[in-house]
Write a structure and sequence with these properties.
With about 240 residues, the chain is an alpha/beta fold. It has helices spanning about 50-60, 90-95, 105-115, 130-145, 160-180, 190-195, 225-235; strands spanning about 1-5, 10-25, 25-35, 40-45, 65-70, 75-80, 150-155, 180-185, 200-205, 205-210. The chain has a domain at about 1-80 and about 150-235: 3-Layer(aba) Sandwich (Rossmann fold), CATH 3.40.50. The longest helix has 18 residues, at about 160-180. The N and C termini lie far apart (about 40 Å).
């Protein structure tokens, strides 16, 4: 097994080759080859048990592969489905978790909160936030580190429909501004098409299908969108 943190190809943010991760006799990832370019937004779809969460954990450094090659940048962060805020720390302190303690760090945290529309909540306690606000804090905490790779693990799944739409637009705007490579794990085909430059499907632990999303932004649900949606649902085995 080879696992490194320095990319040989400077145009790439992720490069995996024949990646294998096995739990008992079940291979969660079975010879996965995946490349993500710097600045590219990739959405990852797949049925439950296809290996999506396993791949995200490997890319985040929360797990190690059994074999294969995994190349990712040193600077990478994760936003999970749950905000995972520390209730005993104020909002700005949650954003600054793990960073050096200084006045500049506090200013950077408040600046990141301003980008997600929560600068006025910097001194609030997490318990006073709505679900959408808490998730925006988690996003600010990720982006304040200026990651080269941003990993999103179904970050909108627990939000109501309206808040989810607002968060999708916020993610799109912030990623366009900061320019990290992004891997979004989602079960929502429409969300994938609204946000991603490319959509990939995992099947039984390997790359089963992928398609570029050439539509200009901001995107609307029109003929081209509907055609891609039908194609992805068909690949996922969903009757229409």
């Amino acid at each position: 097994m080879s696992a490194a943190l320095e990319m040989r190809d400077e145009t790439l943010a992720v490069d995996t080759h024949q990646l294998v991760r096995q739990f008992g006799e079940h291979p969660a990832l079975n010879g996965l080859d995946l490349k993500i370019r710097r600045g590219e937004f990739v959405a990852l779809l797949g049925k439950s048990g296809s290996g999506k969460t396993t791949l995200l954990r490997l890319l985040a450094g929360l797990d190690t592969p059994d074999s294969g090659e995994l190349l990712v940048p040193r600077s990478r962060t994760v936003v999970f489905q749950e905000p995972r805020l520390v209730n005993s720390k104020r909002v700005w302190q949650n954003v600054a978790l793990g960073l050096d303690r200084s006045s500049a760090t506090r200013a950077a945290a408040i600046g990141a909160l301003g980008e997600v529309g929560l600068a006025s909540h910097a001194n609030a306690w997490p318990a006073t936030l709505s679900g959408g606000e808490a998730q925006r804090v988690a996003l600010a905490r990720a982006l304040v580190r200026e990651p080269q790779l941003l990993l999103l693990d179904e970050p909108f799944a627990a939000l109501d429909a309206l808040t989810r739409l607002k968060m999708q637009q916020l993610i799109a705007d912030l990623c366009a501004r900061h320019g990290p490579a992004v891997l979004l794990v989602t079960h929502d085909v429409e969300e994938a098409l609204l946000l991603a430059d490319r959509v990939v499907l995992l099947r039984e632990g390997h790359l089963g299908f992928e398609v570029d999303v050439p539509m200009v932004r901001p995107r609307e649900i029109g003929v081209e969108f509907a055609s891609l949606r039908r194609r992805l649902l068909s690949e996922l085995g969903v009757d229409q």
